[in-house]
Write a structure and sequence with these properties.
Number of domains: 5
Number of helices: 14
CATH topology of the largest domain: Immunoglobulin-like
Strand content: 25-35%
Structural class: alpha+beta
Shape: globular
Largest sheet: 8 strands, mixed
Helix content: 10-25%
Length: 785
């Protein structure tokens, strides 16, 4: 590879990398840098390993309703230069992370919990001093960041973290979910205005269809008090061994070793459809904790349902393109198509902007339902994800008199405004309920579940098209008649305090009533639960003395603290002056938990890097399965990049030598290097554009999609070895910037498979919107070699 003699870093960075980072974002005015994700381009520097994460393995022990999870990340430096690795990864929204340790060779260092800023300071000082160190920070309740400093060449560093979570069954089905990858987050936040803890969204991603670069393994040991009736895994191919009536061991099939691009979803059912109920007790040195889990009465036959008004909010942004939007269409057709004649409804579509089907809700007549379904069917997915303005518009709609309102939102949740969304719903929802449908193989569960919780509804996650009818049916069943309402609990002689939740919402599904907190004195007396079921008053008594305090219930202290932290931080934007920040920090330090304000840090006492400086690399993440390149930038990304090229075309610096690429740059903050790719078997020869768009803008956008078009060539040429010569395509761009029509205008018959693939790519692109309202005709010529 010839060395570039001169690189104009700022101009090149503005024209390629940073606009490319914008995840389906609007163009950055003046070339300002944002916190958006970007595509990973692997360096050909043999001395630098840009993929230091080699494997993630997960061991899960489920005992009763408590899951204890051990996550092991293995980092290895296969290059010749010292590294600092930065890796962003997800966890369950209910995870209480309580421990971490780092192993280097024979040395194991147990991490300590510290205030976030203090932990970061300790880590940075250790890094500068040449010591190996690891830092675990919470960026969101379900998004963590691991930093591992001073990984020397040939080093293998193992980092283990532990968390626990409570498994709550719904309709007698238990579900354990391990999220594997953080989807790209749409944000317009400017880099210069960002706080350090907001930089995690600025992360590299692989292209759609590319498997993870690190291995993934999962082992689950399941032990239930009752015999296990059935264990299933809908997300991965697994091997299930039943080792006893209530014991099972589940492991990934060897074919799934690179399957860390979708959530691992395990479901199981106990014999007879029962669920584990009763009282769990833990007696600690300073505090005692309890958890009551009680099965509610069975749902009775349907009663007369009052008229309902439904507001359907549908995400049609770039990240929903393809598979997620296809699922949404199937789901919404089912939901809207089965509304009753007495219902009314409205549909709001949102991406970079939003549009309403009608100014006010319409009666659910066959004609209106058909119109709504046609509207949704026409969506293709593209543009930004402006969730907050869409929510504001939907919640401000005038309410139909005499109707009970239900708000339904379908999205993958790839935004970074969770706290603002929670606040908006809590303050504006009124008497309505909000039900959320997370669409995709690895959705933002923090947002999906959080919006439902604060909206007094239920969350659903649809990972496959065939799941949509089942989830729609379950939704309709939920809203028709609650299982138990007006719930009250009398603890009698059992001395409890710090009980959560303070009030128990209606039980909409066949899932247990859960109450937890602290107790003092002797476990004695009875707990009585009262409420109103579908067929009359309900009451149940649970004897306290029969429950024995067990050491195996020690996770109860983490559950209580994690719930209290969620109440303080999940639904409110916290400022550093807020008293809640201090309380969250104190809870994290007291109970040894990872929070937004406490972090785990492990530091090796040995100085291992002398007279040197480690290069920071961000571990690239795979796109969640089924998510297209549009989530990171294809459409608006390419438009932004093209505009940047048009603004500063003279800054592009070519490498000398035939067949070489034409730019390279390095950003010290990101630590990633963008270099030319290998010689491309295809070249963009000619671009002809009618009035309305500049040839330069169109050429730049097409060039940005050349890796995907090259894949079309690779697949087609694998079938036919004679794909050589010129091929011409003609396509028409509408006033909205979308390609209306495309076809191969000139080319051999044997090109038809290749041409079909290219036409599909062209139709997925988003060009600049035309203010004149005229179509733009484009002709491009590709040279196949």
């Amino acid at each position: 590879m010839t060395i570039i003699t001169k690189i104009l870093v700022t101009a090149v960075f503005a024209s390629f990398l940073l606009p490319g980072l914008s995840a389906y974002a609007h163009p950055e005015p003046g070339g300002e840098k944002t916190l958006s994700p970007y595509f990973f381009v692997k360096s050909d520097d043999p001395e630098l390993d840009r993929l230091p994460l080699k494997s993630t393995s997960v061991q899960v022990s489920i005992s009763g309703v408590i899951a204890d999870v051990l996550v092991t990340q293995v980092y290895k430096n296969e290059g010749k230069r010292p590294l600092e690795a930065v890796y962003v990864f997800p966890a369950s929204t209910r995870a209480a992370v309580y421990g971490m340790k780092m192993t280097i060779g024979e040395r194991t260092i147990t991490a300590e919990i510290a205030e976030r800023q203090d932990a970061r300071r300790q880590y940075e000082e250790a890094k500068q001093a040449g010591q190996s160190a690891s830092l675990l920070e919470q960026q969101r309740p379900n998004v963590f960041q691991m930093n591992v400093a001073n990984i020397l060449p040939s080093d293998v560093i193992k980092v283990e973290l532990r968390y626990t979570e409570l498994l709550v069954p719904t309709d007698a089905v238990y579900e354990f979910v391990y999220p594997t990858v953080v989807g790209p987050r749409y944000t317009e936040q400017k880099l210069d205005d960002a706080n350090p803890w907001e930089l995690w969204t600025r992360n590299p991603y692989l292209h759609e269809g590319e498997p993870p670069t690190y291995r993934f393994d999962m082992i689950v040991n399941l032990s239930a008090a009752l015999p296990i009736q059935e264990v299933t895994c809908s997300s991965h191919k697994v091997n299930i061994n039943y080792e006893g009536p209530g014991v099972s061991r589940i492991g990934l099939d060897p074919s799934e070793k690179y399957s860390g691009n979708r959530d691992f979803i395990l479901k199981y059912r106990l014999s007879g459809g029962g669920i584990e109920t009763g009282l769990l007790l833990f007696e600690g040195k300073a505090e005692n904790f309890f958890l009551l889990m009680m099965q509610p009465p069975k749902r009775v036959s349907e009663v007369q349902i009052p008229p309902r008004e439904y507001i359907f909010i549908v995400d049609v942004s770039g990240s929903m393109h393809g598979f997620p939007l296809d699922i949404s269409k199937k789901l919404l057709k089912d939901l809207i198509g089965k509304l009753r004649p007495t219902d009314s409804f409205n549909v709001l579509l949102f991406a970079g902007g939003s549009s309403l089907m009608a100014k006010q809700s319409l009666p659910a007549t066959p004609e209106n339902i058909r119109q709504a379904i046609n509207l949704i069917e026409r969506q293709r997915g593209g543009g930004g994800t402006q969730l907050l303005p869409a929510l504001e518009k939907a919640l401000a709609l005038p309410k139909s008199e005499g109707y009970s309102r239900t708000v339904v939102i379908a999205t993958d949740g790839y935004v970074a405004v969770e706290a603002q969304a929670f606040d908006l719903i809590r303050n504006n929802l009124g008497n309505a309920n909000m039900f959320t449908f997370g669409i995709g193989s690895s959705v933002n569960r923090h947002l999906i579940e959080g919006m439902a919780r604060v909206g007094m509804g239920e969350p659903f996650v649809v990972t496959k098209p065939e799941e949509a009818p089942e989830k729609a049916k379950k939704f309709r069943k939920l809203i028709q008649s609650p299982v138990l309402t007006g719930i009250q609990i009398d603890f009698g002689k059992f001395q409890v305090y710090d009980v959560e939740p303070l009030s128990i919402p209606d039980v909409l599904a066949d899932r247990p009533v859960i109450v937890f907190g602290k107790w003092r004195g002797k476990p004695q007396g009875h707990i009585e639960v009262r409420g109103q079921s579908g067929d009359g008053p309900f009451a149940k008594r649970i004897p306290v003395a029969q429950a024995e305090p067990l050491e195996t219930n020690s996770a109860l202290r983490y559950f209580w603290a994690r719930h209290r932290i969620a109440l303080l931080s999940d639904y409110n934007r916290l400022s550093q002056q807020d008293e809640r920040v201090k309380e969250v920090t104190t809870l994290g330090l007291t109970y040894n938990l990872l929070t937004a304000y406490t972090s785990f840090v492990a530091i090796d006492t040995q100085v291992r890097l002398v007279d040197g400086k480690a290069v920071t690399v961000r571990q690239p993440l795979p796109l969640p399965q089924g998510v297209s390149d549009l989530a990171v930038g294809n459409g608006a990304y390419a438009k932004t990049r093209a505009q940047a090229f048009a603004a500063a075309p003279s800054t592009m610096v070519r490498e000398s030598g035939a067949g070489k690429g034409w730019f390279a740059c390095k950003d010290e903050k990101i630590g990633s290097e963008v270099r030319p790719s290998e010689t491309n078997p295809m070249k963009l020869r000619k671009v002809a554009v009618s009035e309305g768009l500049s040839e330069h803008v169109v050429r730049s956008l097409i060039e940005s999609d050349m890796p995907a078009i090259t894949k079309c060539y690779s697949v087609a040429s694998g079938q036919r070895s004679s794909l050589k010569g010129e091929v011409t395509f003609r396509f028409v761009i509408g006033s909205d910037g979308r390609v209306k029509e495309a076809h191969m205008e000139k080319g051999k018959e044997e090109y038809k498979d290749f041409a079909s693939c290219v036409v599909k790519r062209l139709k997925s692109l988003q060009f600049p919107v035309q203010t004149g309202g005229k179509d733009v005709v484009v002709t491009i010529t590709l040279m196949l070699s």
